[in-house]
Amino acid sequence: MSAAVNAPPSLRAEHDAMLARLSIRASTLHFAHCAVSFFVGCLLGGAAVKLSLDTELAWAPSLVLPAAALAIIAALYAVVRLALGLRVLRGEERDFERLQALRAQLKLDDPAALLPATRLG
């Protein structure tokens, strides 16, 4: 009989709940938002610089400030999402360490514990 079967049900329930929580990986969503908003901020910043250099177009100077403001807003959003992603990642790392400890306690990664007992001789 395997050790995982003899384990307390509370450990197995905690393991299953932790596994479900870690399968979501919320930090990747924050990092994706950070990357996209940083890219958009760079595009808008480049557009603001280009518009400021276009002196032959009469309407270009009126768009410099809105483009620069949007670029700054996108960059700030990227920084906020990066900070959130890092905070969530630290929590996920703690949960993953706990999950590994639970797997060791339940002997889920020990192949010998999962095999039926055999009699030699």
Q: Could you characterize the architecture of this molecule?
A:
With 121 residues, the chain is mostly helical. Helix content is 79%, strand content 0%. It contains five helices and no strands. The protein is rod-shaped. The relative contact order is 0.19. The mean pLDDT is 86.
Structural class of the secondary elements? Answer: mainly alpha
Characterize the overall form: rod-shaped
Number of helical regions: 5
Q: What's the story with the biggest beta sheet?
A: none
Oligomer: single chain
How far from one another are the termini?
A: 20 Å
Query: Which runs of at least 5 residues are low in confidence (pLDDT < 50)?
Result: none
Order of helices and strands: HHHHH
Number of domains: 1
- Mean pLDDT score, rounded? 86
Number of strands: 0
Fraction of residues in helix: over 70%
Which properties best describe this structure?
121 residues; rod-shaped; mainly alpha
Characterize this entry briefly.
With 121 residues, the chain is mainly α. It is built from 5 helices and no strands.
SSE arrangement:
Elements: H1 3-6, H2 9-22, H3 26-53, H4 61-106, H5 111-114
Helix pairs in contact: 2-4, 3-4
